[in-house]
Amino acid sequence: MRLQFIESLISLSEARDDTFLMVGDLGFGVVEKFANRFPDRFLNAGVAEQNMLGTAAGIASTGNLVFVYSIANFPSLRALEQIRNDICYHGLPVVVVSVGAGLGYGTLGYSHHAVEDISVMRSIPGMTVYSPADDIEVQACLDDIAVHRMPSYLRLGKGGEPTLHADPLLSRVTPVRLSGSSSSNVVLSHGAIGHQVAQALDSVREKLRIEISHYSVPRLGPKGLEGTGILHANRILTVEEHTRRGGFGSYVLEHLSDADQHIPSKVVGLRETHTKEVGDRDYLLGLNGLDPSLLAQQIEAYFGLRDGRS
């Protein structure tokens, strides 16, 4: 996703002259292509994330669309006051790009885990959260961000995420059905965990022989679920690489409440504890019950038993 983000940003910047990229002394091997192509629209702010976000607000106030790129929780939790007061309060077009969403930087320990960031960013008025599932959704998110020019939080996987979409020209960030044809049983995923969900569903469908639809939901904004049939499902299960408190699942439950829809729903996310183990993303997903085999068990238990199967 990191490479696709830079490629998409370069394409966007070639079409317009108001884009700007800032980094926090990282991203080497990824950001140079943009920096070399647009040296006057690139700034390495150093390891000073609070200053970087405040500066980004100033640059955005002159009419620029500013992308601020850093690892995991550093441009979000460390600079939260600047995001809240300098950017969102003024409605400035700054995009906080968090790389290594969830457990992407698991080998570097808990300090590099972005597992509460959706909840924090969603709580700030005016902030829209984007979590693409693959490179195709990255492009769709960039297109949407460029049109709306509002405070945004773009949550990217570290890299190597498989492509989930059959259509390489996806042009929207509303929920997109990845598989299944029924709206009765619905699984919703947000971000790169969509690949693990897709694998889990393949095995569950074969075993249970019931129809389950899988939607990817890359953008968490107002009216994000309307017009998709999701609000009329019989049962919903959400999956996210994030704490269950205040994240994607909470977003879905809030929408159901606002629409006065009483649909049985289950939220699946990271365990409610600080992850002190160190390991790669796949290892940590397994510890949290989010690898494909363990996800399949949770999906089967929720949909299968309720359907009268065992």
Task: Describe what this molecule looks like in 3D.
- Helix content is 35%, strand content 19%.
- It is an alpha/beta fold.
- The chain folds into two domains: 2-156, Rossmann fold (3-Layer(aba) Sandwich), CATH 3.40.50; 176-306, Rossmann fold, CATH 3.40.50.920.
- The strands form two sheets. The protein has a seven-stranded mixed sheet, sandwiched between helices. It has a five-stranded mixed sheet with strand order 7-9-8-11-12, with helices on both faces.
Question: How would you summarize what this structure contains?
Answer:
By secondary structure, the protein is an alpha/beta fold. The chain has helices at residues 2-15, 32-37, 49-60, 80-88, 117-122, 135-148, 194-208, 248-258, 281-287, 292-306; strands spanning 19-23, 42-44, 65-71, 94-99, 128-130, 152-156, 176-179, 185-190, 213-216, 219-220, 235-243, 265-270. It folds into 2 domains: 2-156, 3-Layer(aba) Sandwich (Rossmann fold), CATH 3.40.50.970; 176-306, Rossmann fold, CATH 3.40.50.
Secondary-structure topology with pairs:
Elements: H1 2-15, E1 19-23, H2 32-37, E2 42-44, H3 49-60, E3 65-71, H4 80-88, E4 94-99, H5 117-122, E5 128-130, H6 135-148, E6 152-156, E7 176-179, E8 185-190, H7 194-208, E9 213-216, E10 219-220, E11 235-243, H8 248-258, E12 265-270, H9 281-287, H10 292-306
Parallel strand pairs: 1-2, 1-3, 3-4, 4-6, 5-6, 8-9, 8-11, 11-12
Antiparallel strand pairs: 5-10, 7-9
**Major sheet description:** 7 strands, mixed
Across the major sheet, the strand order is 2-1-3-4-6-5-10
Distance between the termini: 38 Å
* CATH structural class of the largest domain: Alpha Beta
| Overall structural domain count | 2
- In CATH terms, what is the architecture of the largest domain? 3-Layer(aba) Sandwich
Helix tally equals 10
Query: Could you tell me the strand content as a percent range?
Result: 15-25%
**Percent helix:** 25-40%
Low-confidence region ranges: none
What structural class results from the helix and strand content?
alpha/beta
